[in-house]
Amino acid sequence: MQSGEFWTERKVAWYRRALRRSDFAPKVLGAIAPLVEECETALDVGAGCGALAIPLARRLRRVTALEPAPAMAKALAEEARERGLANLEIMEAAWGDVPLRPHDLVLCAHVGHLLQRDSPFLRQAPTFALKGVALVRDATGSDDKFFFSELYPVLLGRPYGGPCEHEETVEGLARLGVRPTVTFIDYRSDQPFTDLAEACDFWMEYMGLEGEPARAFLRDFLAARLVREGEEWIAPYAKRAAVIWWRR
Ligand SMILES: C[S@@+](CC[C@H](N)C(=O)[O-])C[C@H]1O[C@@H](n2cnc3c(N)ncnc32)[C@H](O)[C@@H]1O
Questions:
Q1: Is there a contact between 109 and 135 (Cβ–Cβ < 8 Å)?
Q2: Ligand 1: does its nearest atom lie under 6 Å from the Cβ of 46?
Q3: How much distance in Å is there from the Cα of 209 to the middle of ligand 1?
Q4: 206-246 pLDDT tens trace
Q5: What residues are paired with 90 via a beta bridge?
Q6: Does ligand 1 lie within 6 Å of residue 51's CB atom?
Q7: Atom number of ligand 1 nearest to Cα 136
Q8: Measuring from atom 2 of ligand 1, which residue has the nearest CA?
Q9: Is 235 in the pocket of ligand 1 (CB under 6 A)?
Q10: Can you list the domains of the chain with their CATH numbers?
Q11: With contact defined as beta carbons under 8 Å apart, do 76 and 56 qualify?
Q12: Which of the residues 1, 47, 76, 161 has the least number of beta carbons within 10 Å of its own beta carbon?
């Protein structure tokens, strides 16, 4: 599935809402602070709705965000506009589809297939980086993602594949002769919902479920697992990521 088909407007809205309460960006940018200090420009590959591109555009002279999914690119443009960030250029394209200029920092966070062991991106990305590269991937030790390990066998009859983990990226880089610094970060990626019905929609959509029996199961399951916070229902999600970075 192309990322443009996966990232519907509704999924992007959920992603954005979770990001607003997440400490992901300060944790990542804290891990690479010595490198960011040396940079004036950054290229964020698979920038999504701007988790890192937005805070970087606040600090750096110029940021380019490469983002192929139209709904994500639209959300990112809105975020930049709301903050009056005129130094953020959005290129609605996938890696390899458009010519790119070198930037001081090349960054890529949570774009699983680009960060796989044999991905050409691992070889290509550093050639666009004047000062350094930073890659972010799930690390071993995160909580179960949105109860998927429990829910997949019950509702889909198969185990959940689990997160893509950082070791294979480090191995892929080692084959290229790159010995990066790996800094682990722990952060919150809790997902808020207005009500239980919206939470059920989230799991139905992410798991590709249909029909009332699945929805009824989820309603009972989520009523017991989500945490009430004021008017909202929160799916708690403690994440651990590896920030894999090196200087050129
Ligand atoms: C899980 S999101 C991560 C977004 C952001 N980096 C973050 O950490 O919040 C993955 C993003 O990568 C984008 N993406 C997927 N394939 C891509 C490719 N080949 N080139 C560039 N971006 C890609 C998707 O459209 C999606 O917005």
A1: yes
A2: yes
A3: 24
A4: 999 999 999 999 999 999 999 999 999 999 999 999 999 99
A5: 65
A6: yes
A7: 8
A8: 48
A9: no
A10: 3-142+162-189+238-247 (3.40.50.150)
A11: no
A12: 1
Residue 36, Cβ density class (10 Å: 0-12 exposed, 13-18 middle, ≥19 buried): buried
Structure tokens at 193: 């919902």
How many CB atoms are located within 10 Å of the residue 86 CB? 10
Q: How confident is the model at residue 141 (pLDDT cuts 50, 70, 90)?
A: confident
- What's the CA gap between 241 and 25, in Å, rounded? 12
The pTM assigned to this predicted structure is 0.95
Neighbours of 66 (CB within 10 A): 25
Contacts of 76 (CB under 8 A, 6+ apart): 47, 48, 49, 50, 53, 54, 65, 67, 88, 90
Q: Which residue's structure tokens are 């964020």?
A: 44
Question: Candidates 111, 114, 145: which one to mutate for ligand 1, based on the most atoms within 8 Å of Cβ?
Answer: 111
On the question of pLDDT at 164 being above 70, the answer is no
